[in-house]
Amino acid sequence: MSKRTSRRTSLGQWGRDLGLGIRLAVGGSRISGTSIVRLIMGTVGIGLAVAILFGAASVGNMLSAHEQRNAANIPSWQPRPGVDPLLMSTASSTIGDERISVSWIHPSGPNAPLPPGVERLPGKGEMVVSPRLAEMRAAADGEALRQRFPQREIGQIDKYQMTDAGDLLAYVGVDATIGAESSAMPVYGFGRPEMSGNETAILLTLLSIVGGIVLLVPVLIFVATSTRIAGAERDRRLSAMRLVGADARQVRRITAGESLVSSVAGLALGTGLFLVLRPLLDNVRLFDTTILARDLQPSPLLALITVVGVPLLAIGTALFGMRRVVIEPLSVVRKSKPVKRRLAWRLVVVGLGVASLLSAPVFDEGEEMWTFAVGVGATLLLIGVPALLPWLVERGAARVSGGRPSVQLAIRRLQVDSGTPARVVAGVAVVLAGGIALQTGLAAAEADDKYRPARAAQETISGQVTGAVADQVVADARAVPGVTDVRAGRYLSVKGAGEKSGTSVYVMDCAGIAQRYQTDQCVDGDAFTVVPPPGSRNYGRDLRPGEQVRVVKYARDKEEQIATWTWPQPKSTLAQPPGSRSGYFGPVATPGAVRGIPLSEVSATLEIAHDKRPGVISALQAATAKYEWRASFYDPSSYVSKDERMYTTLRNALLAGAVFTLSLAGLSLLVLALEQVRERRRAIAALFASGVPRGVLSRSLVWQLAVPMALGVVVAIATGIGLAWLFLRLVDEPVAVDWPGVGVLSGAAVILVLLSALAALPALRSATRLDALRTE
Amino acid sequence: MTTGTTGEPIMSARAVRKSFGPTQALDGADLDLHPGQVVAVMGPSGSGKSTLLHCMAGIILPDDGSVTYQGRELSTMDDSARSALRRNEFGFVFQFGQLVPELTCVENVALPLRLAGMGRKPAEAKATDQLARLEVDDVAEKRPGDVSGGQGQRVAVARSLVTTPKVIFADEPTGALDSLNGERVMRLLVDAAKATSASVVLVTHEPRVAAYSDYEVVVRDGKTRAAVGAA
Amino acid sequence: MCTVLGMSIGHALLGLLEKEPRHGYDLKRSYDERFGKDRPLHYGQVYSTLSRLLRNGLIEELGVESGGGPDRKRYTITDAGVTDVEQWLGTPEKPDLYLQNTLYTKVVLALLSGRDAADVLDTQRAAHLRAMRELTERKRSGDLADQLICDHALFHLEADLRWLELTAARLDDLAGKVRP
């Protein structure tokens, strides 16, 4: 229409046209089955998108709530007037392969502060535990835990005040002797101002952005596809509107009104979904973080953007979909020769993504900019894939011209309209690419010898014991069934004259030294110097023979001298045996060489070898429960398990996401196939009447879906492996492609194609019936 | 019973009955199709003309009565045999919408040959010839959506003729065209059929289209009424 | 045209007489009712036609009622007359312009006499189509002038045929009207 008309279009006219569209969408009894299907599918798609967006909009709030609670739990050692400090020593150890944090506490007076979520301070022999620990202790298989924590449980920590509701936490009351313990700090209160820029928070935010994109892309594609259902019917309706005098702009506004209906309904559905699903997510643990339903509050701004943006987006999609359609009063013209797709901007997106990932090493690993570069790079790559696919499918289809009739039919169909199937497949490709990247990354991480051999070698349990009880604990530990050997070592902190930081001397008996450094020369009273393996840096310093040093211990940030000592002439220089990754290098002394130093004041580390029977560590912990804070054990391999646990979580999340998006994509493909059959009912019926076997028609349907899908899978595999390669390059890991995983994901795509084709076959079959040929 | 025809019919329908649910579409229809002749099947809308054509072509099977082609009873053939018959011996022209929209015109015409196993190059060469005979070789590389209705119908006629069928079934082939284009399509169709001695079953309700036939059969209320009282 | 009309009056009267013997006056009335809405017959026309039919032996006088005069005579159809009607109905009219009057008369008389009116129409259609085929053939081999002339004729014939179709579709209604 003329510019004059458009300028005169008032807001009121807009409103009336939108309203007309709304009435047409829900209008009365004339509405057909397919229109309803379209309305429902649009609503469901937008509903899902809204629910996902609300979830994503809540991540920030969830993280900041987490952060606030974390800050509230940080003990303060600043003396406060009128407060009797709470003496507290916190030790981390493990239960199974989970981390547990045990705080041994003793109030130094009646006015001692209460830790967050604790109602009453436990006295000697009492404790307050986190809900999950209480649950585990109470469980039928919790006998070892009950022995390890024989204290009386006088209450539970309020989960809403813990940093993470799923943490394993215990406050155990002990007597005043803990005051002598160097690790026991006087706590005057809890909570300190929030820290900002937490790295995990940034990473999680980035993850949720990438995850959100991966989830949202198929949803949006699904919404766009759903507008194609009953498209011909809608076109006829709009054509009729033109006939009675609506101008081209009005028709567009009416279309917008129609799509507004499903977006508003979707908005309601999505809000409902979010509210219904939120309680179900309560206490769900993800990435070692427990989700609390009440933390899932969308940020008001983001929620507003969602509420306003989603309908606008839906309208925009509808109008965008009509950009090549000209509705005339008596007909609908689809411009059959669409503009050729341009490659440039698609390549720019992919190129920027790759560049961003390549640039990441410029920054230090873990630095904010590094995280940013990686996140942006991954996001751009994941967006670039679907952007690239329509172009690829178009070009790919243009190249092919031959093939059997069934192939030819499918290829020609793609040449006419490759955009829609390519977009649907692009959704699948994003998921596949992300999936393959993660699978490959995980495979590389698992294959890395850093983890597996280390775990195999370290069939030992580590322990930390206060000096006074070290000998008793060693004796008790030796009595535990399954324990084959217990070795104790102590790090002495020594300082030369006027030296500020000083260095360490490792004290260990000859048996230990012989075993550790593979030497048979050790006699009690000897001292050695261990040189670091090539490439390792010695953080301490070597002592000069005859050097006078002060032996110190630290208590509550105060340095306390416990002895003076002279470093003897080392007997020899020992080398770290090749292949051992962790170790100590520097001065090493036997107990005979440190006579006169009160070792009972220096805590000891234990290395406990065992015969790998299950539950050894639990038995150890139970057997040494009476030492309270004085002895703690942990399984070094459990930290690896923790990584693995995260991988498992990741894999599960990946699988769930993949299943979700694949089924959405499958539905989209089905819709597409059905719509294509509907559109060419007459041609199909005529072909069948002329003797074209149904098989040829069915196969062409399969090809039509399979060709873009095949391209999508190829692109996804390339992108996924490329992404993984770029990631792994950042962390110096070798690339090991998880081919079975790639195979499974690709196979799923193939099955998807076959399933949607299969589901569309009845429609094809009915199209070959002759109703379509009847003109009477 | 018919005029100007001699010899054995290539195809015969006898006492054909067919009902769709409660509707009796054909209630005793007879038709003889003579080699190289064009028979017009006339009658008002809903009289069963198209149903008679579908029965004759073996697209559907009659409930009762017989349809024989070169002495073979169609109802004794299975679906794939009838499909093969339609593919190899028959050609079809419908009112509209029969061309595959995404194939070019020449590809549409070549399609039956390709299905019969012919290679792409020779099939398209033959299709181009056929298009030329129907005076539409200029749109060979266009898609059906980009050509006019008359051109599209001529492409459809070309497709029906490309396998040199023995019988061409044309169901209101000019129904969607104006007089001039309709006449042109009919002229080319009949000329091409005569050139290859193909018989044509022409379903139409337009007398001027029927005038291209050699003889006519009228269907009314599902019954055929043969022309009587030759002059 | 005139002859056609004249001939068809004779056949029409014969057809009317086939059902039952009538007076000349009755014949005129029934003819006017059914066929002569726009152009009623003159008595002179009726009696001259009747006398021609008498002369040709297609009808005969059934007897004169008291009072005499031509209008008091009753006529009845002879066997020859029935055969003549039969032949007339079975013969298609030469496809020509403006023959609806005749065709209509034939259809009504066929209905009146209990014959198959559809046969009349089918016969006519065949004749029309034959004519159209000839014209089509001429058109295909002729020059543009021939084509245009033939097309003119073809369109007129087509109009007739459409009327035939329409009439065929309404035969039952018509039968109800002419045979109360």
Describe the structure.
Chain C: It holds the Pfam family PadR. Chain C: It comes from Herbihabitans rhizosphaerae. Chain C: This is PadR family transcriptional regulator. The complex is a heterotrimer of chains A (776), B (231) and C (180). Chain A is 53% helix and 15% strand. Chain A is an alpha+beta fold and 776 residues long. In chain A, strands 13, 14, 15, 16, 17, 18, 19, 20, 21 and 22 form a 10-stranded mixed beta sheet that branches. A 6-stranded mixed beta sheet of chain A has the order 5-4-6-3-2-7. In chain A, a hairpin with a 2-residue loop joins strand 9 (285-286) and strand 10 (289-290). In chain A, helix 8 (248-281) crosses helix 9 (300-321). Chain A starts with a helix and ends in a 9-residue tail after the last helix. The longest helix of chain B is centred in the C-terminal third of the chain and has 17 residues, at 179-195. Chain B has a domain at 8-89 and 168-173 and 201-226: Rossmann fold (3-Layer(aba) Sandwich). Chain B is built from 7 helices and 10 strands. Chain C folds into 2 domains: 1-90, Winged helix-like DNA-binding domain superfamily/Winged helix DNA-binding domain (Arc Repressor Mutant, subunit A), CATH 1.10.10; 93-180. Helices cover 70% and strands 7% of the residues of chain C. Chain C contains 8 helices and 3 strands; from the N terminus they run αβααββααααα. Chain C has helices at 2-19, 24-34, 43-55, 79-90, 100-112, 117-141, 144-169, 171-178, and strands spanning 22-23, 59-64, 73-77. In chain C, helix 1 (2-19) crosses helix 3 (43-55). The radius of gyration of chain C is 19 Å and the shape is elongated. Chains in contact: A-B, B-C. Chains A and B meet through helix 12 and helix 19 of A and helix 2, strand 6 and helix 3 of B.
